[in-house]
Amino acid sequence: MILLDGKSLAQEMQESIATEVQQLSTHGIIPSLAVILVGNDPASQTYVNMKARACKQVGITSILHEMPKNITQQDLITMIENLNQNDKLDGILVQLPLPKHIDTYEILESVCPQKDVDGFHTQNSGKLFSGVKGFVPATPLGIMTLLKHYNIELQGKNVCIIGASNIVGKPLGALMLNKNATISICHIHTQNIQFYTKNADIICVAVGKPNLITKDMVKEGAIIIDIGITRLESGKIVGDVDFAHVAPICSYITPVPGGVGPMTIVSLLRNTLESTKNRLNR
Ligand code: NAD
């Protein structure tokens, strides 16, 4: 069994991004990212802080806009429209989830697609499903980068993705389909998930339920990508896979933490830098 070491790869990528950012800065160009956080959800605050720290490490300017939980839909849209107009800004990220009274779809659609470094605008997701270049959501992009780094071929493989969210499962399915894999996407209403996982060469799980994937669900030699993140009462961070029992029977597996998480953050940095380069070429 080989560990898919996202932490080391993300570190390497971060260093090369920092070099590129440094080169741009000698020409007076500083990549910059606006992060919008609505309310004070502790998990969202943690994610926002992690993103800000990573930006700082590579020299990307990140500007946090903290908005009250009761902000109106219209005020949030007006704010995003102002950021859209700011020529010096390369990326706009709206931290999810948003409060219940806010229409998330409408908010994500108000981000200008050229600055949509999260890849959640339908113009970008549409491009992804059409196999055309656009911004790809950071988690699926990070997973694809990790697989490529370890020379894991997707063509002809059976892939089972568990979790069908717009930010992980669905875009990951599209990316892997574009690489000629055969995809099953399972979710809370799927009957007999084991039927799909047992037949899979690659299992990707993004649910947020510790030990959802057990040894009896996995084919010998399968590749496991564990995307789930749960903080146990003990403070320990775990994924969705019963790592202790599953790891010995698979060929590759991502650890949690240290697998997909760091690749997600570095992919956001890469998208932001990409957006800066696009701006220079416009
Ligand atoms: P979500 O709540 O939007 O979607 C969860 C999906 O899991 C849904 O499709 C749902 O139908 C499915 N599901 C729920 N219970 C299930 C069950 N018992 N069996 C099968 N499917 C089930 O969640 P999300 O935003 O996609 O995040 C999922 C997990 O991935 C969370 O733990 C989150 O913290 C983690 N995550 C990690 C990263 C990272 O960088 N590592 C990034 C994003 C999300």
Describe, in plain words, how this protein is organized in 3D.
There is one protein chain. The chain has ten helices and eleven strands. By secondary structure, it is an alpha/beta fold. The chain folds into two domains: 98 residues, Rossmann fold; 123 residues, NAD(P)-binding Rossmann-like Domain (Rossmann fold, 3-Layer(aba) Sandwich), CATH 3.40.50. The strands form three sheets. The protein has a six-stranded parallel beta sheet with strand order 1-11-8-7-5-6. A three-stranded parallel beta sheet has the order 3-2-4, sandwiched between helices. Strand 9 and strand 10 form a beta hairpin. Helix 1 runs parallel beside helix 10, helix 2 packs across helix 10 and helix 6 crosses helix 7. The radius of gyration is 19 Å and the shape is globular. The mean pLDDT is 98. The chain binds nicotinamide-adenine-dinucleotide. The site of nicotinamide-adenine-dinucleotide (NAD) has 23 residues, from helix 10.
